[in-house]
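Example 3.2
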Amino acid sequence: MRILIATDAWHPQVNGVVRTLRSLAGAVESLGASIAFLTPEGLRTVALPSYPSIRLALPPPGEIARRIDAIGPDIVHVATEGPIGHLARRHCLRTGRRFTTSFHTRLADYAAARWPIPADVTWAWLRWFHNAGSATMAATPSLVAELQGRGFRKVMRWPRGVDVSLFRPRSEVDLGLPRPVFLSVGRVAVEKNLDAFLALDLPGSKVVVGDGPARAALAAAHPDALFLGERHGEALAEVYAAADVFVFPSRTDTFGLVLLEALASGLPVAGFPVAATRDVVGDAPVAVLDEDLRAACLAAAAIRPEPCRAYAMTLTWDESARRFLANLQGAGVWTEAQGRLGDRRSRLVRA
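Structure, written as tokens:
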């Protein structure tokens, strides 16, 4: 079964959506499926206002439809709501093809924080966008419930995973900084609420990995913090392993893959008691969530790495991929695709 995923989020962007989609593609192959991507690669792009590192594709008329037809997928999944996602959605509707979508980003919150766009307006548009599909996938139980409460139809949970072979404790790694080392990883942008972490009076060291439009201002305002810029692969895994506590100050994330990466590296989590963070850590003794973020950081430093690692070991990309494929079956698009494949085989036999 060949699945096409249409996504506006792609390299060189560094975010959870891109990492999720790449990890999914690797995991589904052992389950009898393959994934092709429809991305901004090869298309003219323009920078998103106020966020130049994110560029939006401007495909020529008919280009997305031509690319979909050339790939010839059995199933189409629309992962993002940008120009590529919108045009893939429109092509499916015009050709009578059922499709699924996924909800990765709180666009209503992010748009309201950057531009004078009422959140209700964005939510109405998102509802219109996703309800045209056969199902919408969301990462956590609380997000599923929220979307259902906002009028999204047929919302299914699609959990995430972590590469536990890459992200693991490494006793030989040391940043050479005063301990404890409090670490935050992610886009350095206003919606990540990093100032809530950087303004804390904490012992040891504060380290930020990532880049984004707020980096220069935050680095100037907090000279005591070490900003390492973007890190990937082994370099990123080594920074996790060299820290003592992972601090997640975001209040708007839908999931936070970095939480799983930190836990797999043996890091306890400190954060606010918001739905996305609670959904990831559950009742496991691997995190301290408190409206007093400083208290959460200090308390989390006492948590041993062993339960953190053990908890992350239960959250694999293989299981995430199985759930994704099960959702395609539950939405009816897998069965429909099998029917089309059977019809094609019958025509070939008759010919």
